[in-house]
């Protein structure tokens, strides 16, 4: 499986965010998208997820399910954690698991994997910012999808939670998954390639992030 982009361009609000963008991410590989604020990192992830229109170019998931869109084969972890405050931690994850076509029985093991099993009964309204982020990360492992689109995934996470996320990402890659992550700093992807957005032409190189 391979995520392939060629000559991609994105326009938002009448402004061209980026253009002539190309990259390839294969099974078991990660690509870190870096650059200054406003360079288009989040826009790129949203474009791949199908939430932003492609102005020009081609994007394909070779080896994926031809009857599904790329977004339907991806998990998008954005800046906002999509949670219902009145629902419990477990109910929130069970909802997303069912909504995304997974097995609700996977919710409990996923919560344990992110260290939230002990508070699964609490309403999401009581969660700290870091706990909310961990609950969103649990969705990545409760429903299996090959492509993870992660926008600043370590935001609000403490050191232990960052290490746990690094382990989860390594496991996903080891199983042949793909990761596209927008980041301003290290997130634990040891052998990720780097795609730099900004004023200069986009470039890709091997790096540790």
Structural features, described:
- By secondary structure, the protein is α/β, with parallel strands linked by helices.
- Helices cover 27% and strands 27% of the residues.
- It is built from 5 helices and 9 strands.
- The strands form 2 sheets. Strands 5-6-7-3-8-9 form a 6-stranded mixed sheet, with helices on both faces. It has a 3-stranded antiparallel sheet with strand order 2-1-4, covered by helices on one side.
- The radius of gyration is 17 Å and the shape is globular.
Strand line-up of the largest beta sheet = 5-6-7-3-8-9
Distance between the termini: 23 Å
Shape: globular
Helix content estimate = 25-40%
Q: Structural class of the helix and strand makeup?
A: alpha/beta
Major sheet attributes: 6 strands, mixed
Instruction: Please tally the helical runs, counting DSSP H or I stretches of 4 or more residues.
Output: 5
Question: In summary, what is this structure?
Answer:
The protein is 27% helix and 27% strand. It has five helices and nine strands, in the order βββαββαααβαβββ.
Annotation keywords:
209 residues, alpha/beta, 5 helices, three-stranded antiparallel beta sheet, single chain, six-stranded mixed beta sheet, 9 strands
What topology does this entry show?
Blueprint: E1 2-12, E2 15-26, E3 30-34, H1 41-48, E4 56-62, E5 74-77, H2 89-99, H3 107-113, H4 129-142, E6 147-151, H5 159-174, E7 178-182, E8 193-196, E9 203-206
Parallel strand pairs: 3-7, 3-8, 5-6, 6-7
Antiparallel strand pairs: 1-2, 1-4, 8-9
């Amino acid at each position: 499986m391979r995520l392939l982009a060629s000559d991609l361009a994105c326009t938002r609000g009448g402004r061209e965010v980026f253009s002539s963008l190309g990259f390839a991410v294969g099974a078991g590989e990660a690509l870190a998208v870096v650059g200054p604020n406003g360079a288009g990192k989040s826009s790129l992830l949203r474009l791949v997820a199908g939430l932003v229109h492609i102005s020009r170019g081609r994007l394909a998931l070779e080896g994926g399910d031809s009857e599904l869109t790329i977004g339907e084969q991806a998990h998008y972890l954005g800046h906002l954690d999509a949670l219902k405050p009145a629902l419990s931690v477990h109910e929130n994850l069970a909802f997303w698991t069912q909504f995304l076509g997974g097995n609700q029985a996977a919710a409990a093991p996923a919560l344990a994997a992110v260290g939230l099993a002990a508070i699964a009964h609490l309403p999401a309204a009581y969660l700290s910012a870091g706990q909310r982020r961990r609950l969103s990360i649990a969705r990545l492992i409760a429903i299996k999808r090959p492509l993870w689109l992660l926008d600043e995934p370590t935001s609000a996470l403490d050191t232990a939670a960052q290490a746990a996320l690094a382990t989860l990402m390594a496991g996903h890659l080891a199983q042949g998954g793909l990761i596209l992550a927008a980041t301003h700093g290290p997130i634990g992807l040891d052998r990720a390639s780097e795609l730099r957005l900004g004023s200069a032409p986009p470039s890709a190189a091997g790096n540790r992030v």
